[in-house]
Amino acid sequence: MVWSPDGSRIIYENMSLDGNGLPTLWWVDVTTAEAQPVFQDTQLPGGNPRWSPNGEWLSYATPEGIRLYNLENGETRVIENVLGAAAMWSPNSKTILLRDVVIKHDQFVTQLFIYGMESQTLVNISPDAGFENTLAAWSPDGETIAVVRRDLSITRGDQVWVMSADGSNPRMLTNDVDALHGSLNWSPDGKYLLYEVYALEVFPFSSRLQVLDVESGEVNDLELQGFNPKWVW
User: How many CA atoms are closer than 13 Å to the CA of 231, on its beta-carbon side?
Assistant: First the structure.
């Protein structure tokens, strides 16, 4: 379930599955509480919907890839994508960050791609075969991307990195080979990252919450257990 940027509608996946076994997209007008399908063809499959921040486009996953639908003029585009994860729109709505799987050394590896709305081109910004990129999040100003990366030469664990919006200047911020990181959340001022961390040597697995100072790299363990944390600002 995702709110529109202007707060007037909520889009959601209708789990009354279509003939292909995939959900369809519906939305609700929050004023009237009226629900209706997004598309005239109510059987069109769609998942992981996201609005562009300017409210002009809707992105969603289909069997063909990530489909973009212009809510003003009806234009559609398809970005080839196997993974089907949600598109991550830049704050200015000009760029989309996508994760997808590629084959490297006979194994599937998740990497990051940038799609330019004006150029309509898709570029791999993490082609280094030695790393897998499992999570990513735009900074509030759109100039930096936070990434959870796994060094494929190390048997377990991953780290939090930051890089410029074009994939350049990657910098590792954490260094804990016995941990997994998830749910990257930038503070609204862009100074901190809030996330969950799983200690691999502890069983059963449980997650605790940490805050990372992006500039200094200092980690503050909140000494709280939880998952999917969000900022209240």
Answer: 15
Range 213-228 burial, b when 16+ CB lie within 10 A, else e:
ebeeeebeeeeeeeee
Q: Are 6 and 53 in contact (CB under 8 A)?
A: no
Q: How far is CA 125 from each of CA 11, 83, 99, rounded to the nearest angstrom?
A: 30, 17, 10
Give all strands (DSSP E) within 88-227, no chain letters: 88-89, 95-104, 107-116, 122-124, 131-138, 144-151, 159-164, 171-172, 179-186, 192-199, 207-213, 219-225
pTM, two decimal places: 0.90
CA end-to-end span of the chain: 22
Give the pLDDT confidence of 25-82 residue by residue, as tens digits.
999 999 999 999 999 888 889 999 999 999 999 999 999 999 999 999 999 999 999 9
- Tokens 């994508």 — which residue? 81
Q: What's 38's DSSP letter?
A: S
The CA distance from 62 to 149, in Å, is 26
Reading across the β-sheet that carries 144-151, which strands appear in turn? 131-138, 144-151, 159-164, 171-172
Q: Are 214 and 193 a contacting pair, CB within 8 Å?
A: yes
